[in-house]
Amino acid sequence: MLICRIVGNAVATHCHRSLSGKKLLLCQQLGDADVNVGAPFVAIDLFGAGLHERVLVSTDGLGARHLVDDDSSPIRMFVQGIIDEEILSTSL
Predict the structure, then answer these.
(1) Local structure of 62: helix, strand or coil
(2) Is the CB of residue 73 less than 8 Å from the CB of residue 16?
(3) 53: Cβ–Cβ under 8 A, 6 or more apart, which residues?
(4) What are 43-63's pLDDT values in tens digits?
């Protein structure tokens, strides 16, 4: 599982049939002190995450393919939850 920030939306004119109609987000992994780690990647979003929100992303490819109900899907990552910034700021 990765902590990431949503940095954009992914749009495709042609895509695998399993991804048709799915919301795809561009995610940037975050390290210590919210420093960007590596290159951004695409993940399926089932929760309605918005731009600049912090999210938990699962790297379980089997789980992602199960979500789209297609064992041949190329998707590997999916948003597993949105991190509530309000709760984090009040607990510190």
Answers:
(1) helix
(2) yes
(3) 5, 6, 82, 83, 85
(4) 999 899 999 999 999 999 999
| CA distances in angstroms from 28 to 7, 22, 43, 69, listed in the order given | 6, 19, 10, 26
pTM of the model: 0.85
89, pLDDT greater than 80 = no
Residues 6+ apart with CB under 8 A from 87: none
Q: Identify the band that residue 78 occupies on the pLDDT scale cut at 50, 70 and 90.
A: very high
CB 17 within 8 A of CB 63: no
Q: Give the pair of three-digit tokens for residue 32.
A: 């210590």
Instruction: Find how far residue 80's CA is from the centre of its chain.
Output: 7
Instruction: List strand residue ranges (DSSP E) for the chain, in order.
Output: 2-9, 23-29, 41-45, 54-58, 78-82
